[in-house]
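We store amino acids, tokens; thus:
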Amino acid sequence: MASIASTSSQPKGIAPDRYERVLAVASVILLAVVLTAIGRGHGQWGQVPGLVWFHLLTILVALALTPVMLLRQRGDGWHRWLGWVWSGALFLTALDSFLLHGPGSRFSIIHILSIFTLIQVPIIVLSARRHDLKRHRRSVRGMVTGALLIAGFFTFPFDRMLGHWLFG
């Protein structure tokens, strides 16, 4: 008896669900807001230390790759390669955040998310390598929600550079 081949390019278990589509859209919105803030702050670019630019670059890479990783086909070579780039960008963002601090303070509440990221990135990579898709998916969702979107939101208020650039 012949079987009917699946018309879907992904097995049902790893196709993007509604929450992942929301995370992808939120990442695109945050990316657009960050790029807008950077553009509006062009008059002050020369005053920004190189480490801050590096931090922005790593987070922009992660933000740009997030919707791609969440929405495109999973498990193929491109997903793995982009996953390494995404994971590396997040790991570097978390690491360099410990070198960034405001006047009179060493660490902030956001650094808790940096610690979370330094723990979660290896878990994300190892769970993918072990084909533990349930843990991998759960960890990626947590990373995007916490380390990208929540931490990203908190870069705008409270007298922070991107907030000044965006809101004047």
Q: What stands out?
A: The chain has six helices and no strands. Residues 3-8 have pLDDT under 50 and may be disordered. Residues 18-40 form the longest helix (23 residues).
